[in-house]
Fold this sequence. Notes:
The structure holds two protein chains of two kinds. By secondary structure, chain A is mostly helical. Chain A has 16 helices and no strands. Chain A folds into two domains: 2-72, no CATH class; 92-336, MetI-like (MetI-like fold, Orthogonal Bundle). Chain A has helices at residues 2-10, 12-29, 34-38, 45-54, 61-72, 87-122, 127-141, 144-158, 181-187, 194-228, 231-238, 243-272, 275-280, 286-295, 299-327, 329-336. The relative contact order of chain A is 0.15. The model of chain A has no long low-confidence stretch (mean pLDDT 88). Chain B folds into two domains: 2-252 and 498-516, D-Maltodextrin-Binding Protein, domain 2 (3-Layer(aba) Sandwich); 277-490, Dipeptide-binding Protein, domain 3 (Roll), CATH 3.10.105. Chain B contains 17 helices and 19 strands. Chain B is globular, with a radius of gyration of 25 Å. At the A-B interface, helix 3, helix 4, helix 8, helix 10 and helix 14 of A face helix 1, helix 2, strand 10, helix 8 and helix 14 of B.
Amino acid sequence: MARAIALRLLGVIPVLFLxxxxxxxxxxxxxxxxxxxxxxxxxxxxxxxxIRERWGLDRPVLEQYWRFLLASVQLDFGRSYRYGEDVFExxxxxxxxxxxxxxxxxxxxxxxxxPLGIVAALKKGTALDGAISVFAIxxxxxxxxxxxxxxxxxxxxxxxxxPSAGRLPYGVALPHVTGxxxxxxxxxxxxxxxxxxxxxxxxxxxxxxxxxxxxxxxITRGAIIDVAQEEFITTAVSKGLAxxxxxxxxxxxxxxxxxxxxxGLELGVLISGSIIVEVxxxxxxxxTLLYQAISVRxxxxxxxxxxxxxxxxxxxxxAIDIIYFMVDPRIRxxxxx
Amino acid sequence: MAHVNSNRKLTNSxxxxxxxxxxALLCSTMFASAQQRIMTxxxxxxxxxxxPYGESSAPVYSMWCHIYGCLGRYDHVANKPVGILAEKWxxxxxxxxxxxxxxxxxxxxxxxxxxxxxxxxxxxRIRTDKESVHSSFVAMVEAIVPVxxxxxxxxxxxxxxxxxxxxxxxxxxxxADLFEKHGREADKKFAVGWGPxxxxxxxxxxxxxxxxxxxxxxxxxxxxxEAPDVVILQQMREPxxxxxxxLNGEVQVARLIPPQLVxxxxxxxxVKVDKTGGIExxxxxxxxxxxxWTDVRLRQAIAHSVNRQLIVDRLLGGYxxxxxxxxxxxxxxxxxxxxxxxxxNPAKAKQLLAEAGxxxxxxxIDFYTAVxxxxxxxxxxxxxxxxxxxxxxxxxLHTPEYANFWSEVRRGKSPFYYMGRGSVFDASDAAxxxxxxxxxxxxxxxNPKFDELLKRQYAELDPQKRCQLWRELNQIxxxxxxxxxxxxxxxxxGLRANVELQVERSGEFxxxxxxxx
Lengths: 337, 517
């Protein structure tokens, strides 16, 4: 197991190399650069050229890439042109906001989707199964930017129940420990703030979760239907075990592997896919940062964020492998041989 | 006694969702904030850096002008420049302006008032700081020479009667002492200046919080006692969200409301809508060196093909003013309708096409527009393309992402495009860049007579004569049609009923003159 994890982690190096190379080339192929886009309309061509030179954008792309590689092995991704800050620090500062949003969305999605998937599997072929399928497909098909705006219109504007934007209002003092506000409030034992913090997360988290509910519900349904056809389930039914006991002790543990896989992968998708939702809700996370960076061809920042996303995906995959090992005795047995 | 933070109001309204302890906290903070007026204003442009010269947009200039202080600002209501940190300015000769700074100002941290040394430091930093993107508007400045502690001369590279309008609202003065001591950290830990508000918090992509400087008095002695004590500039890029936040009281001022959302605000007692004539000029631009746009008849045919008023009425909800030439009614030196204008006249357009050799239709043209950058830009471009097709042009409409679009325009690679130029009040600089020979690759227009008149107006001290020169310049641009001017958008701002705020043509406002009841 340890060897497999070590090999997987070693695989990060060529993946990151390729990702950054492709990114550099793509960004350089697109017309324009940060100097073009960050200088005001009235800047003369000479001034734009001067800025380009100052930022090193006039150097050959391979030289720029080589400098980036040399620096990045020391986790130095350079300075953002747009933010004027160290890229690594920017990512570290913004990551907790995105992680908090993604985790809450994941929990919401899992809590809703897994029971829905189980019910759909147990009521296979009924109207209820059909209704859940329709709901799941709607979730997958609904564009997040549209859903976000609709939620803002109805829940914030019409019903005035939740705030439409931001993460925490002005004037609320919350000690910064992890950057994950809910966790920080718990650590500081500021339970009075939990409701307020949650009120800002609910809408973006619901928007993100809606698409995932469909995916997890469909996978759960499929996994349970597959496991339900196994002989050991027939044996359990023949032995007269209670329905709940069969579901909890026989069906779910054996259907867990694909569900864990999809939840793990979805966490990666949520973190990297929250860009639009963060922009719609003015959520100050990595997504907003990437959006701003791409819009002005801020190569150091775009590259840094994509490297962070890629690393995170690989880390999540390794974590999923470890969870497989823990939840599936067959994998443990095969590793032991 | 409505001095209550909107955020508190909002959270109160969802007490059902908040924990009981949370409500208790909110009640206590409400009590604490009841003594101060807090105004939350939506910020629509990126707020990405606390570097005062690191970003270039009118709202960002305005924010730093309120904090550090600028030399002055243009008061669009009084229609004249007024001082902020400067109290006097005069032209000594066509290439020298003398400014005098105000006496008795104190820095927010109790430090000394601004001096000529700070002004010189500012110019140097704008020009040499690696992160500065403000160098364009000081390009005309040769040097700043101190006369004494509070007086300095600005020497320009050529005659520059427009220097004041170029520097005011943008030349943000920062402390030489603090920068020498702390370098870039001065912007983070010692972001103190002399302006009417001091910076309390800056969170990029989120908000900036400004607190009123109790010592501030306007240059005319006005005491801004009724201005908000705290101003929160809250980042909100989505128009729907801005309108929603205004309606549910999260913010008191929602900026840049698109025409299609105005209806949501009208007819309500708790909000009001301010519609101010703007100075963002929209136009159809040609690269005058790219065929077929080398032929003036085709450029004029385009102008005669487009029914601007119809687009304003139907697509822009009436919230724009059709503009003939570069200088319109909302701008400096407007002297009435030009003698000749290129009105909507499809028959004339067809005649010009025929004269240019396109009797049976054509030519094939590529038309580019930005998407999501200007009000209803894609819809406007679609309407324009349709109108051009009706005249006989074979139009291919392209809608690239803004970064691609702008880069191609800047490099002079776009043959024909729809775009705008913001904050064109005194048109001198924009005209120099867009229409003077060799000004930039974007339009590549050249007319020796235009160049000569433009040069003369830079040196013309008599305002009336200068405006007459502008009338001639405007007419040349209409006749030659290197671009076809479309309109200036209205600046639409949503305000809570208890807010009094004078929105200026630039879309900005001067907070010390605002009130919260």
